[in-house]
Amino acid sequence: MTTETSPTVEIVEVAPRDGLQNEQVHVSTAVKAELVRQALAAGLRRMEVTSFVNPQRVPQMADAEALMQDVRTYPGLTAIGLAMNRRGFDRAVAAGCDEVNMVVVASESLSRRNQGMATADSIAIIREVAAAAREVGTPISVTIAASFGCPFEGEVPEGRVLAILEEVLPLAPLEIAFADTIGCGVPSQVGSLVRQARALAPGMRLRCHFHNTRNTGLANVAAAVEAGARTIDASLGGTGGCPFAPGATGNVATEDVAWMLHRMGISTGVDLEEAVETAKWLSDALGKPMAGGVAKAGLFPKEAALGGCVAVA
């Protein structure tokens, strides 16, 4: 069990959005709603449910409003909608999202491919959205994508990411997330960026989003948490990928992240047995193998299934 000094890390479940957006086979609204329901049963309360983007560019998200209609009354759910512009924000608010996650891409090349605009233009849109968010009372978070590298430009300097952070801080977002969009980050980068961000914004909630493209995802989670991040994005079964970033594969698996953190003495509130069963169900629904390790290998020790922590001597 946790001690009084043990930190708590919140896992934001992103399988319904980031986990499914790159699937080539159509996923029905009913399957997505069932995924949200099962994730809630596993203790995952805060969820990126869908994205309000152009359905011609991301067809899997064409049912955003219909899905929100199905899940918005689920008890205990904090539903996050992702948006790229003011229209997307307005749609998310109208659909009943509790939060809206806005995205700015740290590299110019990926920004133009992913959002069709320069990084500076994205920041200008977020400024406009932040003002609208205050008026309607819907909080926004800001994700800085490609924080650790770009598929077209290579290295993304830490200073550039921190400069973007400084530009969005005055907008008072609920949270700022650093995303390793293509899974190229390593623990030393992650630890450095999170520590620098905490120094620049000591009161800001920091979140990290990792893809496991090069098998550094879990190590990066550990580095982020040790550096002070207290929210981690993850996807049941390790599903996911970015349609506009060549070679990007799945997110870190929720069940793997929760298992590791529990073994480190850190509480997440996730019921591991339920999470593993949901990962298996999602694998069957998608007709593809799971990317995570815990669901394949099984829980160790069995006490980890209780959703708390294993005491480590």
From TrEMBL:
**Alphabetical keyword list:** Lyase, Metal-binding
Which Gene3D superfamilies does the record cross-reference, listed alphabetically? Aldolase class I
One of this protein's GO BP terms?
ketone body biosynthetic process
InterPro entries according to UniProt: Aldolase_TIM (IPR013785), HMGL (IPR043594), PYR_CT (IPR000891)
One MF term in GO for this entry?
Answer: hydroxymethylglutaryl-CoA lyase activity
- Give the residues annotated as coiled coil: none
> Which ranges carry the Pyruvate carboxyltransferase domain?
9-276
Tell me the protein family, please: Belongs to the HMG-CoA lyase family.
The name of this protein is Hydroxymethylglutaryl-CoA lyase
The lineage is: Bacteria, Pseudomonadati, Pseudomonadota, Alphaproteobacteria, Hyphomicrobiales
